[in-house]
Amino acid sequence: MKKLALTVAAASALAMVSNAAYAQCMIYSQPNYQGAAGIIQPNDVVFFHSNGTSGLEKEYRAFNDPSWLNNLKSSKVAGSCKLIIYEDAKFPSTRSDYRGETPKHKYDEAGVAVCDCK
Length: 118
Prior knowledge:
Elements: H1 2-22, E1 25-30, E2 34-40, E3 44-47, E4 61-64, E5 74-77, E6 82-86, E7 95-98, E8 100-102, E9 112-116
Parallel strand pairs: 3-4
Antiparallel strand pairs: 1-2, 1-5, 3-9, 5-8, 6-7, 6-9
């Protein structure tokens, strides 16, 4: 019985880790999930310009990756997350929210992306 309880506990822990691993935002440099691919982890903000500050870094872990500036064309968002894209580096800016699979984004320009899983 003790062995069964440990097995159930281990399986539950693995299931929780597995579900957490799928809560993320995949981004692609081309429509239809083609080109370069990147992962934005839950509750991270990525600035696609060199001087990334907007106030978002107070709510999320912040990173800079200028290689994605205006190169985010499609995305796959898993779990309860949503991908928030701001067109410009300066705020306020045009904002687009995406959930699930989006083979082509509405706008081609992206200055900041947030994987919001709160």
